[in-house]
Write a structure and sequence with these properties.
This protein has 444 residues and is mainly beta. The chain has one helix spanning 2-32, and strands at 53-61, 66-71, 76-89, 106-111, 118-123, 128-133, 135-138, 143-146, 149-152, 158-161, 164-165, 176-182, 185-193, 195-201, 210-213, 217-220, 227-230, 232-240, 243-251, 256-260, 265-267, 271-279, 284-287, 290-292, 298-301, 303-310, 317-323, 327-333, 338-343, 368-379, 384-387, 390-394, 397-411, 418-424, 431-434. The strands form 8 sheets. Strands 30, 31, 32, 33, 34 and 35 form a 6-stranded mixed sheet that branches. The longest helix has 31 residues, at 2-32. The protein is elongated, with a radius of gyration of 39 Å. The relative contact order is 0.08.
Length: 444
């Protein structure tokens, strides 16, 4: 029995010794294969730090030596100081001065971590840049369309005209721009050919006719017009019956150019503008069998014309008048049943009409109205409101809702006139617009 216990004890000791030897062997193996880090992973490669962000220039303050960027990575507006040692490079690595940096350009920006100042800005090489293009703005979906391609934009999008930052909706059809961005994302829009305004004056004889801005638009002539047109030389032609007035005007960006229509007014050969003085008021006038509006001078060709005047309770007047001068006045008194024709040289009418022409050119734009709903403009207070050049009232004001894209122009004495391109949906709803305040015009 004692022999059995000794054998068990011996076997137990042998197992312990073997276990210790195995453990010691394992530790030695682990120590042998221990991994150590090297200071330079690959000494043959030079590692260069990339830019901190891609930034769009919003403002360069050369006196305070500060630049304001639209940080496209974080979609924020950020300002950084720079120094005389800040490096400025073009796309082809040409050294530039800070005076050559323009608002709307896109740069790779690198900052010094210790000083916080810009150490280098380098014009981004991977940016899409399209020149002399037109942009369509969809503000509801924050989207721009350029050459039938859509680009999203953020509220930090840089839109600039003549060095002035503005809203995307201020871009008008016909404006030419430089577009910068990447696939699917817009960074900046720089207007290179903008728009201004034409305000006709002394044109009462043309109300109810049409105005053609050559190559741009055909619109009805109404009271209180203010047209938004591309900057540059524009050819204008007013037509109302036998009257025409045409000339060219030079339109400056963001400025209102007044055009004296009467100064260039001419009359077609062998025609007369006949003023009818008929009493009592309310009588109907028929010329050559056609009911005629005589609230303003009537265009008539030289020769004989049959005239009939009718009013209930009075005897009808019928007669023939002879037109042979460029202007004439016809006085008809139903009570006396007489007609006198008095020739007046260079006469003109002092009357005007608010009615729009019923015989507009087929090429003129037509507007669809929702007569059951209105558009209300609540701001900016006191500004005159024009829709596609037609005066609608002074803010606050309301008018019948139209459907589709329109140009809304806001004008106020002493302030810079602004236009916005907006779209009104056919949604059977009233609409209220509140536009930003106008900026005061600089003196001198």
């Amino acid at each position: 029995m004692k022999k059995i216990h000794r054998m068990a004890y011996t076997i137990s000791c042998m197992v312990c010794v073997m276990t210790i030897l195995i453990l010691m062997s394992g530790c030695q193996t682990k120590k042998k294969h221990k991994v150590t880090a090297t200071e330079v992973p690959n000494s043959s490669i030079t590692y260069v730090k990339g830019p901190d962000f891609v930034g769009v220039i919003r403002k360069v303050d050369t006196q305070g030596q500060r630049i304001t960027f639209y940080n496209t990575l974080l979609e924020t507006q950020e300002e950084y100081p720079y120094s005389g040692g800040t490096k400025v490079l073009s796309k082809n690595d040409r050294d530039m001065s800070m005076e050559e940096v323009s608002v709307g350009e896109v740069y790779d920006v690198t900052c010094d971590k210790k000083s916080g100042k810009i150490s280098e800005i380098h014009q981004s090489k991977d940016i899409l840049e399209l020149e002399d293009v037109e942009v369509s703005v969809d503000a509801d979906n924050e989207r721009l369309t350029v050459d039938d391609v859509n680009y999203a934009y953020s509220n930090q999008l840089v839109v600039v005209s003549d060095g002035r930052l503005m809203e995307p909706l201020e871009i008008m059809p016909g404006d030419k721009v430089i577009f910068r961005g990447v696939k699917g994302q817009a960074y900046s829009v720089v207007v290179t050919r903008g728009h201004g305004y034409i305000q006709p004056t002394h044109y009462k004889d043309f109300i109810g006719g049409k105005l053609t801005v050559k190559g741009e638009a055909i619109v009805p002539v109404t009271q209180g017009m203010l047209l938004t047109v591309p900057e540059g030389t524009q050819s204008l032609e007013f037509i109302n019956g036998d009257l025409t007035s045409s000339s060219t005007v030079t339109v400056k960006r963001g400025k209102v150019t007044k055009f004296n229509v009467a100064k260039y007014q001419t009359q077609m050969p062998d025609t007369s503008r006949v003023t009818f003085d008929i009493s009592p008021q309310g009588a109907e006038l028929y010329i050559n069998g056609n009911l005629t509006d005589y609230s303003k001078p009537v265009s008539m060709k030289y020769g004989n014309h049959s005239v009939k005047v009718v009013l209930e309770g009075y005897q009808d007047y019928s007669g023939v008048i002879q037109v042979k001068d460029s202007s004439a006045t016809v006085k008809i008194d139903l009570a006396e049943e007489s007609a006198d024709v008095t020739q007046q040289e260079n006469s003109s009418s002092d009357t005007s009409s608010d009615d729009s022409t019923k015989d507009q050119s087929s090429t003129a734009q037509t507007t669809t109205y929702d007569k059951d709903h209105t558009v209300t403009v609540s701001a900016p207070q006191g500004a005159a409101v024009y829709v596609d050049g037609t005066y609608k009232g002074e803010v606050p004001c309301s008018f019948t809702k139209m459907i589709g894209k329109v140009t809304v122009t806001l004008s106020k004495e002493g302030y810079t006139t602004k236009s916005y391109r907006v779209e009104l949906p056919d949604d059977s709803q009233n609409i209220t617009w509140s536009f930003p305040d106008l900026t005061q015009e600089s003196q001198g």
